[in-house]
Design a protein that fits this description.
Helices cover 48% and strands 12% of the residues. By secondary structure, it is α/β, with parallel strands linked by helices. The protein has one domain (2-289): Rossmann fold, CATH 3.40.50. A six-stranded mixed β-sheet has the order 1-6-5-2-4-3, sandwiched between helices.
Length: 290
């Protein structure tokens, strides 16, 4: 399983190319073996979650990014299915509202950070401000930023500053015991088309489809460029990106769960050791009970 992570993990700025990461990669794992593999990993993650909660020193933030129909919702549901919901919190970020636009672009994401001992999941994130906002720079105008009165005012320096803000934000989090996993669910354009058609043809999935999905699909190449740029600008050892093949959902879930397991194991979690006074109280309580 180590090779899965090695092939998907991006930590060095400037070297990532989407074309070098096939969306249908499955690491020679067979689909019929997927369920058993996933269940084994889930059991291990569940035990580590208890240790994470008990130790209460680290938080784990998992960020999901990807194109429409990449499978973010289902991946989140399956990845967290074996965990205690009391130790998890999931936030889905839509287009910012009036109050959110009156603050800096990181504000609402800061409010949604997991506390120590918990696992937080962000379905879309602060990266939208260098992804969708870069493809549609007119959205930046709604943020009422000084000196930005028209799209022509949004230059390369503006985006460079945003990447700096993201790197500094994530550096601050990792320096203060929040471990970050950033996942890019890498879906092929042809697979997206197939999933859109399934949503249209299946009445039970009609609610998942929006006309805006087709409109955004026209910007596919632009989105691939901004994803590539964002990953190259922000990937670091402490806040790495993982490019997850998303064409085969069963492998997507294995890959994400494997990454979670390795990251949790890397925290070297330990149950708290009680001081002597507390241990003495436990012995007294045991005597009373018996």
């Amino acid at each position: 399983m180590d090779n899965i992570i090695k092939n998907l993990k991006i930590t060095s700025a400037g070297k990532f190319k989407i074309k070098n990461h096939p969306a249908d990669y499955s690491a020679d794992i067979k689909k019929e073996d997927a369920e058993g593999i996933l269940e084994t990993i889930k059991v291990q993650i569940s035990k580590l979650q208890v240790e994470l909660y008990a130790e209460n020193r680290h938080a784990l933030l998992i960020i999901f990014q990807g194109m429409d129909a990449a499978g973010k919702d289902s991946a989140i549901a399956h990845t967290l299915s074996g965990l205690n919901p009391q130790g998890c919190q999931v936030h889905s970020f839509k287009q910012p509202g009036t109050e959110e636009l009156e603050h800096d672009f990181l504000w609402r994401h800061s409010l949604a950070l997991p506390s120590a001992g918990r696992i937080g999941v962000h379905n879309r994130s602060h990266y939208e401000d260098v992804l969708v906002c870069k493809v549609h720079p007119e959205l930046v105008l709604a943020q009422h930023l000084p000196g930005i009165k028209a799209v022509k005012d949004i230059d390369d320096n503006f985006w460079s500053d945003r990447y700096d803000s993201i790197r500094n934000f994530e550096k601050h989090l990792t320096n203060n015991c929040t471990v970050i996993i950033i996942l890019f669910l890498n879906l092929a354009k042809e697979e997206q088309k197939k999933r859109f058609l399934e949503r249209i043809d299946d009445p039970d999935k009609n609610w998942k489809f929006s006309a805006s999905d087709i409109a955004e699909r026209k910007y596919w190449d632009d989105y691939m460029k901004v994803y590539e740029k964002a990953i190259n600008e922000t990937a670091t050892d402490k806040a790495p990106w993982y490019v997850i093949p998303a064409d085969k959902k069963w492998f997507t879930r294995i890959a994400i769960s494997t990454i979670m397991l390795e990251v949790l194991q890397g925290m070297k979690l330990q149950y708290p050791v009680l001081p002597k006074e507390e241990k003495d109280r436990l012995e007294e309580a045991k005597k009373e009970l018996t």
